[in-house]
Amino acid sequence: MASSESNSNQTPSSNSQSQGGRAGAKWSDEEETWLVINSMRDVTIAWLTENFPGRTRGKNGISGHLNDMRLRSHLSRKWRNKTWEDEPAYTMREDVEIMQWHVGGRRHVDTEIFVPNQRAGGSVIARADYLCQDEELVRRVKEAEEAAQAALEARDEASYNVEHPTDDDPADHDALGEATRILHREEDENMVTICEAISRSLAARGEHHEDEGRDVDKEDSEDNDS
What we know:
Blueprint: H1 7-10, H2 29-38, H3 45-51, H4 59-71, H5 92-103, H6 121-131, H7 135-163, H8 173-204, H9 216-225
């Protein structure tokens, strides 16, 4: 869980190096995730093209998709910048996403979190490496994420049982309701735990967030309503 990069995201493929490819084909979530994660690093468009997994994507297709993501505010305009000295300080919301990304194996990151401050992907990696120097912080975040994941799986199992009842296992709506309440509680506690762990870790280094004390969950809800 604590690897600096997912091996599956870095393994070169036998992809064709042609510049044509299926540039106009719809992008899958897996393709977009691979592109976003790997374009954080100091690699060229040619490298991304040559190592793109699965079907061929040409240089134009890859460059065009990155530009389209920027235009739709799904990706920072500076995501592929190689320098980031003038960036603003990291916010709690960004650090929470970074820690969740790290303990999840650095396989998937919500890039929209980093659009307001126009983060470079390399900066996000550097911030993750800095935060994760604190092994206790990593441990606490990992435990919180595992508890939330267990609650999610329990809710999904209860939901499946309601949707697919049998004579031996009839639909139990009460169990689903309870599992849903537990999930919401775990998600709330998960966010509080992670924020507190990050705050303590930074305080030990003589640092703090300018947005300290702001409700990250409430901020996410406001963004979704806008």
